[in-house]
Design brief:
This protein is of the alpha+beta class. The chain has a single domain, classed as Double Stranded RNA Binding Domain (2-Layer Sandwich). The chain contains three helices and three strands, in the order H-H-E-E-E-H. Strands 1-2-3 form a three-stranded antiparallel beta sheet, with helices on one face. The longest helix has 34 residues. The protein is elongated, with a radius of gyration of 16 Å. The two termini are 29 Å apart.
């Protein structure tokens, strides 16, 4: 799953929304900004479950939202994987 999210950003907003619904969490809130510059680019921050995640710079608002959602998902998955590794270490230690 981690590799799919890393490579394909198209479904990230839907995945994050579905995760929020299934976990009975508030839906993510997307805040798009347009940094000053020559090219029109967009950046999105996502407020979700008490944390804020910021995506990479994008060419469109839609892409910025997907990248913001992807940043949130990758962070959540990273925490989950860390907890799993910690649990495996604990089990190895006590067994």
């Amino acid at each position: 799953m981690y590799n799919v999210i890393s490579q394909d950003k198209v479904l990230c907003k839907s995945i994050l929304h579905e995760f929020a619904v299934k976990m009975s969490l508030e839906k993510p809130i997307y805040d798009i900004s347009q940094p000053k510059g020559q090219l029109p680019v967009f950046k999105c921050s996502v407020a979700f479950n008490g944390a804020t995640y910021t995506g990479e710079i994008a060419r469109t608002k839609k892409e910025a939202e997907q990248l913001g959602a992807r940043a949130a998902i990758l962070s959540i998955l990273g925490i989950f994987l860390f907890v799993l590794e910690l649990w495996e270490f604990f089990l190895d230690y006590i067994c």
